[in-house]
Amino acid sequence: QLQFVESGGGLVQPGTSLRLSCEASEASGFYFSNYFLNWVRQAPGKGLEWVSEINPSGAITNYADFVKGRFTISRDNGKKTLYLQMNILKPEDTAVYYCAISHTGLWRGRGTQVIVSS
Hints:
The protein has strands at 2-7, 10-12, 18-26, 37-42, 48-54, 61-63, 71-76, 81-86, 95-100, 112-116.
């Protein structure tokens, strides 16, 4: 399978931006460039919530309504890395963010914490 390591989180003020990264390691027979990839998140005390997805080539993206127009997902298959550019952050974006191969968080890593607070 793929193993993911998320990074780039932190404590930021509302209205600012962060860029998350997710680097993948490939096991034999599993190739980063073959997979749809997702960002999911888990806010304190809540369940996993799907945020965004991108197809293997990077040409097609989808977003949850609550991040449309603010977040941008992208990928670099050569670097085996997934990104999430987060703009106009809101306190309700506070969560641990994970990359995964499914909307339900399959194969997700340890995550990266994002705290949006003034």
